[in-house]
Write the structure tokens for this entry.
Amino acid sequence: MEKNVSVGRRKASIARVHISSGKGKITINGKKLEEYFPQPVMQQVAAKPVNMIGSAKSYDYNVNVCGGGFKGQAEAIALGLSRAILLFDEEARPELKSERLLKRDSRVVERKKPGFRKARKKEQYSKR
């Protein structure tokens, strides 16, 4: 893997982040951050590592993300951006770690079991 590429995962989403020198611009699948995530909350979640670290604004981030929904993709992008920032600025680690941006959240949807309606929901018991 190249030196300027990092990966972030969350639920069913995978985000590959390519980092290059620039002015802090985040491009996701060829679109600006504001176009890709119209909701301001998702924009904040995805861009949190770049907004926290001042030196991170001197790089441009090109993100390819696939799979999952908006929330999973935003959190995968945040992890990928955090890892990308560490490639060039190792001193940012304590600040990112304190905000829990370097740990992969491994929770995924539980599978449906046979004979159940959902993962744990059973048919209603009928005595007669």
User: Anything to note?
Assistant: The chain has a mean pLDDT of 93. Helices lie at 33-36, 40-52, 70-88, 93-98. Strands lie at 5-10, 13-21, 26-28, 31-32, 59-66.
